[in-house]
Structures are given as structure tokens and as C-alpha cells.
Amino acid sequence: MSVKSTGMVRPLPATVALYVALGILTLIILAPLAWMLLTSFKTDAGAIQQPYGLPDPWSIDAYTSLTGGQTPVFRWLLNSFAAASLQTVLILVTASMGAYALARLDFAGKRIIFGLVIVMLLVPPVIFLIPNYLIVEELGWLDTIAALTVPGAAGSFGIFFLRQFFINLPREIEEAARIDGAGEIRVFLQIVLPLVRPALATLAVISFLNNWNDFLWPVYVLLSPEHMTLQPGLSMLQGAYRTHFSIVMAGAAVASIPVLIIFAIAQRQIVESVTGAAVKG
């Protein structure tokens, strides 16, 4: 005996209206990206005279100027990618260990430590700017990649975020592994972490983007142009009396490529993480 679905069928006008609204929303989101890309293929004069039209003529001078001279954008791109990748790895290591301890282990002061983690989420990060700078200066890390990665490698957000997923895991899996002779480290690495892989991927994307888009901290700790990251480097393309709009947009287009690639790779894990959290409550 066949069972028919009892789900409600949306009327055709409502479906059409929904897709029209989604299409309009998509155009609104993509319009600035399209304008940025088109402007990057214009000349300086064309970007000023025809800011919203198609390039006339089409030019790649903005992209060729990014490879050297006073605007080594590709060098800044590599610096940003190295710093963001390294800090992401450090955050995943520290956050996963801290979250596992707070979610699955019993020790004195556990509630107090978790309370401090919650309190740190409420503190604006800019408050730590001067203390972190003094520490980095004392360690001799100014103008190095360590200054961009280590200070933010043990943030409270990652611990809080992963802890919510660790708590929802069934303890029977860990107990079965311990009965088979697995130690705590093996349970953590081979049993628990694979089960929260979507959450780890989501935290990795968030951590990468936070470091990638950071502007204020690199301005303070990076002293030489060759060590500059992308965000403060792109600001150098805007002069006090003249701005090369095509070069700025070309740099912004190059800066968006790694972000789009990372999101395209991790979007499935992000969706699983969001839906899993919603189902588990």
C-alpha cells in the first residue's frame, strides 16, 4: 500500500513570488561584486568618467600593477594567507582541547572556568590591543607572522562554539572505546573529533575570515611594507589627493578569491553544522 505525502503544497503564485524575491535578493548581493569586478578592468580615467558602465576600453593594467612596484598585492596576499591559515590551525587545536575538557571531563573549577569563557565573549577585543602589543613587543615578535597568529590563537569563542557540539555527543561511544582499551587522547582524536567535523570546518572558516579581514592589529604590529597583510596594504592604495580606483578594485577582487574558494569547499560542512545544531537544540 502506497503512502502519500501529507505535506502542504505551496500554491503556484506563492512559489513564483518566493523565487522572484530570492532573485531580487541575489541581484542585490551580487551587484556590488559585479561593480567591483568591472571597475578593476577599467583605466583610471574610465573608472572616474564611467563608474557604473562597462569598461571602455577593457584594460588589465590594474592587475599588472599589483605584481610589483609600490603595490605588491600578491606578496600581501601570501602574507595574509599564511597568517590566516596558521592562526586557524592554532585555534582549532586550542579550542578543541579546551572545549572537550569543559564538555566531557570533570575537574575542580570547571564551572568557574566556563563562566570566565562566557565573560570573555562579552569583552570587546579592542580592549586587549595595548596589552597584546606590549607582550608582542617584549617577546620581539613585532613585524613577524607570530604577532599576527599567536595572540588570537586561544580565543573564547572557539571554546564556547565547540563545547556546544561536544555536549550533544552520546557518551556511550566514548565509554565503549574506553572499554576496548582506548586512552583519553585516543578517544579525543579518533572518536570525538571526527564526530564534530562539521563544527570544526565552520570554526575554521570563521577563524580564517576573522584573521583575513583584520585591519587594526596588523597596522600596529607590522612595520615593513614587505611584511604587510592584504587589508592594511590595500588601504595604502588610496592616496591623500588621488585614488587609483581600478587598482583598489583589482586588489579587492584578488582578496576575495581565497575567501570564495574556502567557502565553496566548506559550505557543505557549514550547512551540516548549522542544521545539526538546530536539530539537537
- Portion of residues in beta strands equals under 5%
Morphology call:
globular
**By CATH's scheme, which homologous superfamily applies?**
MetI-like
Order of helices and strands: HHHHHHHHHHHHHH
CATH architecture: Orthogonal Bundle
Radius of gyration from the alpha-carbon trace, in angstroms: 24 Å
The number of domains: 1
Distance between the termini: 35 Å
The helix content, as a percent range, equals 55-70%
Instruction: Specify the CATH class.
Output: Mainly Alpha
- Helix segment count? 14
Largest β-sheet summary: none
pLDDT < 50 runs, ≥5 residues:
1-6
| Strands, total number | 0
User: How confident overall, as mean pLDDT?
Assistant: 85
Q: What does this entry look like structurally?
A:
By secondary structure, the chain is mainly alpha-helical. The protein has one domain (about 70-280): MetI-like fold (Orthogonal Bundle), CATH 1.10.3720.10. The protein has helices at about 10-40, 45-50, 60-65, 75-105, 110-120, 130-140, 145-150, 155-165, 170-180, 185-195, 195-210, 215-220, 230-235, 245-280. The longest helix has about 35 residues, at about 245-280.
Write a brief structural summary.
The chain has helices at residues 12-40, 44-49, 61-64, 73-104, 110-121, 129-139, 145-149, 156-167, 171-179, 184-195, 197-212, 216-221, 230-235, 245-280. With 281 residues, it is mainly alpha-helical. The protein is globular, with a radius of gyration of 24 Å.
